Structures are given as C-alpha cells and as structure tokens.
User: Which sequence fits this backbone?
C-alpha cells in the first residue's frame, strides 16, 4: 500500500536501507543504526513523506526463535543480532504507514533516540528500555517507566525466568519468605 | 434467592442476651457497621459496584459506606490484581487502618494471583497483609461476596479475625509480663 514510500526511501538513502519488505500490509524498511536519525528526520520533514504521527516503538527479542513447522527463520539465527527495535510511523496527511526496523546486538543494545523528533516516542522508548534493556542515546529521561527502580534485569527478554518475582515487601510470618530467602543466599 | 442470613440481627441479639456476655457487645456492634475501604485495582471493581448498588445492596448487612480514607475504615476489600509494585502501598494502607480491622480478598487475583504467574503480579495479597476471607471467582458473583461478608461477620462475632486474635495475644503477653514483673516494672 505504501510501497512507493519504501521505494523512495531506498532510493534516497541507498546505503542506509539494508533491505525492504512487507508483512500483512505493512511496509518495512531495515535501517542501519547510525543512519536512523537522518532517515527519520527526512520522513518527518519531507513534504512528500510527511510522517506526522508516531504509532509505536517496541522491540523483538529473537532469542531461540523457532517457528513451528518451518525451518529456522530467515529473519533470525544465532549469527544475527538478537534484538530488532521497531518504529511504526503513520502519515495522516498522505495516508501512508511505514515501519523502520533497526537490528542491535546483545553486546551493544543501543541506538539513537527518536524522542527528539516525535515527543510521543519519549515514554515508548522508556517502556522499551524498561522491558528489553535497549539504550536510546540522546533520550531526555531514560529510566524505568512501569517497573520500580529496585528491579534487576529486563522481564520481556526471552531469557528472563518466567516466574521470577522481585518482591518489594512481604509479611514477616510467611512460611517461605522470598525476601528472607534472597538475603540468606547472599550471605 | 437462596440468600438467607444465617443469623438475623434479632436472633443474634437474643443469642447474646442468653449468653449474657457483656464483652461481646462491641463485636456484635462492629459486625453490623463495617466501613469498607475498597482497594480497587482491576476489573473486579465492576462486581464490587454491583454488590454495593441497589440490586444486591450490601447495605442490608451494614457495610454500605465506602470510606476512601484508611483511618475511617475497618474492612479492607482488596478488589483486583495486586502487583509487586503496589505491595508497599497496600501494606501502608493496612497499617494506617485502626484496630481492629479485617481484610477480604475479592476475586482470585487478590487471593492467589489468579492467572498471572509472572514477574509483576503478587501471588495473593496475603503475601503482604493477613487476609480473613478469600472470595474465589473471576470475578466473583455478588452472592459470593455477600456470603463472604456473612462469614466475616460470624468471624467478627467470635473474635476470630486476624487483628482480633493479634490484639488478644498482645494483651495476654502484656498481662503475663505485668504478672512476672509484679507491676512496678513499667
């Protein structure tokens, strides 16, 4: 539907766009990390693009991704970067949608923030940081948004134990007190 | 309706009169004038509204007046999921309530964590504060809530609520200490 947008983007930034694709009617452009801000600025400011509405920012953790009934995905295997950060944009004026995807590695999970371009991405990037531990360089206030400061780790990463709780407070008379049990282990 | 009070106020008064235990007057009065603090966090709140509204009418049991200050309430209704982040707030609300006080866990999430088994949901509000009556259901029917309230009223009358037992225990300990120290110790 927005194929011409992706084609224009690839023509304008041939070195920044690694590949393009389409999924369920949404056009996707994979962007190199260092060129993300330049690409996003052009998408926002060019009158023919006019992407004025940020839809969402989130992250995909591809760790151990095994699609059922199919061979190991072309999207991910052990040699590829673990995380994909997605920015979904919409142009209300031109009625276009486009998704920018940036691949970041587990060792260096950082990319430039787009909160300066679209202020609505401020809290969404904070959520992505909260849940996946992605660092957004240049973000005005990058700290946890849902979880408490005492929380250790990033719960939506696939290697976070499913039922691991990090309680803030417990009764003193519990048969098994997780707070006390944690203290006992550390000593 | 199948909703019969096991003890009406009149029968209760008669029972009390037969036993003629003056010490039971306050508990008899307390159980018919519960002031609720609705700690409403989730969808069970809709069912709480239903219980409080005219059709099921929790006012029939003397617990119709929600107080949004813990200082003015003696029944804490935990209505909905409690997250780990909310734990300190819940404990603080409970600590601020005046003694004696009672707690009802309203719905499975408040009772056991319900279907949330993950990093953020507390596996039951009783991890943080003692709970007197648990109401299962997702959400519970209003009849279940009224049933739980009647159970709690019986418990209050018998002095078996958590905070009542704790107060009795503390009083006993104080009495023993006073006896051991022969009075002028304090």
Assistant:
């Amino acid at each position: 539907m927005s194929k011409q947008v992706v084609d224009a983007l690839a023509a304008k930034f041939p070195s920044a766009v690694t590949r393009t694709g389409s999924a369920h009617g949404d056009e996707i452009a994979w962007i190199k990390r260092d060129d993300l801000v330049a690409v996003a600025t052009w998408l926002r400011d060019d009158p023919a693009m006019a992407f004025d509405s940020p839809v969402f920012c989130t992250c995909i953790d591809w760790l151990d991704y095994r699609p059922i009934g199919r061979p190991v995905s072309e999207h991910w295997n052990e040699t590829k970067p673990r995380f994909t950060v997605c920015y979904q944009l919409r142009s209300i004026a031109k009625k276009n949608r486009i998704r920018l995807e940036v691949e970041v590695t587990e060792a260096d999970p950082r990319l430039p923030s787009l909160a300066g371009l679209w202020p609505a991405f401020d809290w969404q990037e904070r959520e992505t940081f909260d849940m996946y531990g992605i660092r957004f360089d240049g973000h005005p206030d990058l700290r946890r948004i849902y979880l408490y400061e005492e929380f250790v780790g990033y719960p939506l990463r696939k290697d976070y134990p499913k039922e691991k709780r990090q309680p803030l407070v417990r009764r003193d008379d519990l048969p098994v007190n997780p707070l006390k049990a944690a203290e006992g282990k550390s000593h | 309706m199948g909703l019969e009070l096991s003890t009406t106020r009149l029968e209760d008064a008669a029972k009390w009169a037969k036993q003629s235990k003056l010490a039971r007057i306050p508990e008899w009065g307390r159980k018919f004038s519960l002031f609720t603090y609705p700690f409403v966090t989730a969808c069970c709140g809709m069912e709480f509204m239903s219980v409080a509204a005219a059709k099921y009418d929790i006012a029939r049991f003397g617990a119709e007046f929600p107080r949004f200050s813990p200082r003015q309430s003696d029944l804490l209704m935990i209505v909905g999921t409690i997250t780990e982040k909310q734990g300190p707030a819940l404990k603080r609300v409970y600590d601020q309530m005046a003694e004696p006080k009672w707690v009802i866990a309203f719905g499975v999430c408040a009772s056991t964590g319900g279907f949330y088994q993950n990093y953020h949901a507390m596996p039951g509000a009783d991890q943080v504060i003692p709970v007197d009556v648990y109401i299962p259901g997702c959400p519970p029917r209003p009849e279940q809530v009224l049933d739980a309230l009647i159970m709690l009223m019986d418990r209050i009358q018998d002095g078996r609520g958590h905070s009542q037992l704790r107060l009795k225990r503390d009083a006993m300990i104080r009495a023993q200490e006073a006896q051991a120290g022969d009075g002028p110790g304090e």
